[in-house]
Amino acid sequence: MRKFVYQFSEGSKEMKNLLGGKGANLAEMTNIGLPVPPGFIISTAACNDYTNSNKHLSEDIFEEVKIHLAELERQTGKIFGFKENPLLVSVRSGAPFSMPGMMDTVLNLGLNDATARGLASLTNDSRSALDSYRRFIQMFGDVVFEIPSYHFEQALTQIKKTNNYLLDTELTAEDLSELVATYKTIFTQATGQNFPQEPLEQLRLAIIAVFNSWMNPRAVIYRRLNNIDASFGTAVNIQAMVFGNTGETSGTGITFTRNPSTGEKAVFGEFLLNAQGEDVVAGIRTPEPIKALEKRMPIVYNELIKTCELLENHYLDMQDIEFTIEKEKLFILQTRSGKRTAKAAIQVAVDLVHEGKITKAEALIRVETKQLDQLLHPTFVESALKVGQVLATGLPASPGAATGQIYFTAKEAVQAAERGISVILVRNETSPEDIEGMAKSAAILTAHGGMTSHAAVVARGMGKCCIAGCSELIINEKEKTIILKNGTQLHEGEQISLDGTSGKVYLGEIELTEAAIGGHFDELMTWADEEKQLMIRVNADTPADFKKALLFGAEGIGLCRTEHMFFDEKRIPYVRQMILAESLAERESVLTTLKEMQKEDFTALFRIADGRAVNIRLLDPPLHEFLPNTNREIEQLASEMNRTVPQLTKRIHSLAETNPMLGHRGSRLAITFPEIYRMQAEAIIESAVIVHDEGIAVHPEIMIPLIATKSELKYIKKEIKHAIHSIFDKERVVLPYDIGTMIEIPRACVTADEIAEEAQFFSFGTNDLTQLTYGFSRDDAAKFLSDYYEKNILPNDPFVTIDKEGVGALVEMAVTRGRMTHANLKMGVCGEHGGDPESIRFFHQLGLSYVSCSPYRVPIARLAAAQASLHEKEMLTTV
Ligand code: PEP
Ligand code: MG
């Protein structure tokens, strides 16, 4: 018979896919002798069996569960469902990849009226027993029967109010007994049945609920956001309960072996006395910092610190550890690699290398490329911050800065973000249902909860600024207001600013500034540069973008889109005149003006490049983006061009295209009007001569866009070469330069061997290549692609991650054919895919010389290129 259930002692950390991350680590910790309450794991294979058999939990699997339950009874000396000495268990989900808070947990399972009484007399503590029972009814009702928690919360609040209590811990045994009765009534009213008293039935229903939670909407969204495959399934961990809610010598907490916000090497965490499981994460009570445990229970504290060290050294990574203290005895309930900010990820990885625990290669692999994004984002301008009005201070839960309008529900946050608003999501506490709203918001502010609350953990994972536990604010989610300490109210849509590093909330908008990087970041990036084989260039059209990109480590310009240089308000009239000119003479006169402007641009870029590659693409304007639209624009242009309005309108209409993306753009424009590219080539070379004369090395790459045939390229090349050599003759100088082409049309890929006869380099324009290979419009595909993901027709956006089988195969064909003509042909990518880690891996495998991307993605590309190289080496050694 197939085995579906495993004792902790049968597993190990390597068995994550089968036992889930939580189960595998519980097994590992058991085997290294840590105080883990005993238990067993129902594997992910059982979850898949359940899903594949139409959501039926097979009798065979449940029989196997019973066998392991009997073993657990033997290990604990307690009996499941036996009122004298009842065994209680926790039932927790645990997927192969960590999905914090996304799936369900039931604690204290096995309690019923009889066992609750039995437990009370056994421990001589009816308060704790009843407290556990009421928690169980709520969790079971919520997880298994989907009874909204607020029904129970309302009853709890009511009884506290009646008795004038502030805290749950003030409830007496009598209060709790009353609360249990109320909870059971709530249960019956909601489900039409009595609360199940049979522990085995409770267990069966809880296992099914955890399996079902794998497919709940928030888990589905989380997996989509994090690219996790739905076919893994979740495991279920059944573990003997230990109780943190048995008085002031008990408690529960979470600790990180290093600071997950900053990466600092110091144990960091929180705990709550007399509390159970979810209390810390749910953020209902504000916990104490871990250091305070040293005073309260020094022996337990020292044991915890030792355990932190042991686990970190065992896993060789920063750990996130859950613990419970039951009457001064420490139990470890979970360890996992801790979620961390990008800053912390880098510092921890670099420090672990310095501590001799991991290699540089390991450090490079560990830092997630997509996380780097958050480091490179803005912070507040110091001076603006000084005069900013502080409204309140909360816990600095996730660093960064953001300014935006306040919204009080996840749904409204999503809607506002979709209208292009920068949103600050304001909640009392977040819950996993809020995940999409959090993802779409610029930052998150909560009134309750600590540094390990749901909001804090999820925000750090997303790299989002978050302030948690800002208890000075009264947040009224129903009225959609924030009430400040002085009584002032803020309403939905008002602007505030959050500093996630200091925890301060400011009124209004505060100016943001670029991120400051350095230190550990630079060190890691140096290691990346040593490892990577791809060069990383930048797509930049302005000196400012180019300078920023150099700070981020760009090694040159891979794409300067000259049409972007024409968008400038002062220039656009000339560009329009150039396009609308009716004679060569008229066009050439405008071109003379434009040439001077282009020379300013190019000289600036060549100076900044200081000898690095600069690839300038000749004009590729989709015509519709440049034609005048409004009557005013047409009137003004007509007067500038000495035309009548009807004359000009007629000309505009004659140029209008039904499908501009497939229209008179790119090299096609130059076939009709070669003087445009001649002017640009002259501007490039004259600028190169100027900068060369200043003693700065310069070697321009001139790139022709949208080439479909060798003959197009040959014609254009002849035109511009002629112009270039006239300059050399005139200036009595010869400078190196290359003329090459974009490869962005499928026909160019197929005939790349011929095209290479005329090209000194290829640069893959994977944006157009994707558009033309799929026949999806770049500008419109977003409207229907979501249907493709939902229906599993495409896994992701082919404009973001290269479609290896289709578009990628064309790139590969062009690479092979290009090399047939020129073995050393220089080849790179300048489409958006040049900044996407997964695509970068593919380009690395093709042996391209560089990828080019926007400035902010340069560090991501550097790291991704290093990871691609490391993965390749690993594949070579494991083959
Ligand atoms: C491309 O098509 O991939 C490209 C880089 O050019 P553009 O995006 O300017 O069309
Ligand atoms: Mg293109």
UniProtKB/TrEMBL annotation:
The keyword Magnesium applies. SUPFAM superfamilies: Glutathione synthetase ATP-binding domain-like, Phosphoenolpyruvate/pyruvate domain, Phosphohistidine domain. It comes from Listeria seeligeri. Residues 423-503 form the PEP-utilising enzyme mobile domain. Its EC number is 2.7.9.1. Residues 520-868 form the PEP-utilising enzyme C-terminal domain. This is Pyruvate, phosphate dikinase. Keywords: ATP-binding, Kinase, Magnesium, Metal-binding, Nucleotide-binding, Pyruvate, Transferase. GO terms for molecular function: pyruvate, phosphate dikinase activity. Residues 56-300, 303-347 form the Pyruvate phosphate dikinase AMP/ATP-binding domain. Pfam families: PEP-utilizers, PEP-utilizers_C, PPDK_N. Belongs to the PEP-utilizing enzyme family.
